[in-house]
Design goal:
Helices cover 36% and strands 29% of the residues. It has seven helices and eleven strands. The protein has helices at 3-18, 54-65, 78-90, 121-132, 141-158, 199-213, 229-235; strands spanning 21-25, 28-32, 44-47, 71-75, 94-103, 117-119, 161-165, 172-179, 182-190, 218-224, 238-249. The longest helix has 18 residues, at 141-158. The model has no long low-confidence stretch (mean pLDDT 94).
């Protein structure tokens, strides 16, 4: 199986494990987690019909997510996402093209020795909450709490491990998820005031090395095609092999 197919299988399996319900729809599967309505990733419509039309998907999202403050579509097939993107953008949906980047070589330079370390659960939980408060939703404490509950689900389902830098006073962190021989690095974050010090480099490389040591022969991450972190990941030895799409609309109750 080629790498991009293994990544898609990993993502689908992760979604199936962490969501409360998987409800079949005419053109895909509704991911439903009623206990965490503010967590978009756990309340979405996964598009599985390559011929699905925009009008039908919008209607299905409305039906399955009608009681939420958002509408979300997840499309793992690159060609399908690219086809849907223009029409959804015209309808006011936010389009996110996420690069699938796989570790294929060594970094341009190593991280500073001893800068990163694997974190205990309490340290990791506090670090993630701190980073999330710098995000656009960070003013909403309930969202922070629900994201922490999401983290706990991923920890149980995918043997999550957390890596931080510096080890004593974390200003950067990331999560490592593993399933069989595939690993994903996710939730990479650095406090704005601490960027440019090699902290994310250390945390990500620590996680990537841990994945290799655990027997994973494929380590990947997802990153926004329109944002700068992709350049860092290329320097760390990650190369793009494809992309997935996410579409998000925030029609209700999202203003601060």
């Amino acid at each position: 199986m080629i790498a991009i197919d293994r990544v898609r299988d990993f993502l689908r399996a992760a979604e199936d494990r962490v969501c409360d319900e998987m409800r079949p729809t005419p053109h895909g599967t509704a991911l439903v987690t009623e206990a965490l309505p503010l967590v978009w990733a756990l309340n979405a419509l996964r598009v599985e019909d390559p011929q699905a039309q925009v009008e039908d998907l919008v209607a299905e999202a409305e039906t399955t997510q009608g009681g939420l403050g958002h509408r979300k579509l997840v499309v793992h097939e690159q060609e399908v996402g690219a086809r849907l993107a223009p029409a959804l953008a015209r309808r006011g949906w936010n389009v996110f093209r996420l690069l699938v980047m796989v570790r294929q070589r060594g970094p341009d330079r190593p991280a500073d020795p001893g800068l990163a370390a694997e974190a205990d659960p309490e340290t990791a939980r506090d670090a993630l909450a701190t980073f999330r408060r710098e995000q656009p939703f960070g003013w909403q404490e309930l969202a922070i709490e629900q994201l922490a509950a999401m983290d706990a689900r991923y920890t149980r389902a995918l043997a999550a491990r957390d890596f931080v830098a510096p080890a004593d006073r974390p200003a950067s962190s990331c999560r490592l998820y593993t399933n069989a021989s595939v690993a994903q690095i996710d939730e990479v974050g650095t406090l704005a005031a601490q960027r440019g010090r090699g902290l994310a480099r250390a945390a990500v490389l620590g996680a990537a090395d841990a994945a290799t040591a655990a027997g994973c022969d494929l380590t990947f991450l997802l990153t926004d095609a329109g944002d700068w972190p992709q350049e860092l990941y290329r320097r760390l030895g990650f190369d793009e092999i494809g992309c997935v799409y996410e579409f998000l609309k925030l029609p209700l109750g999202t203003a601060r």
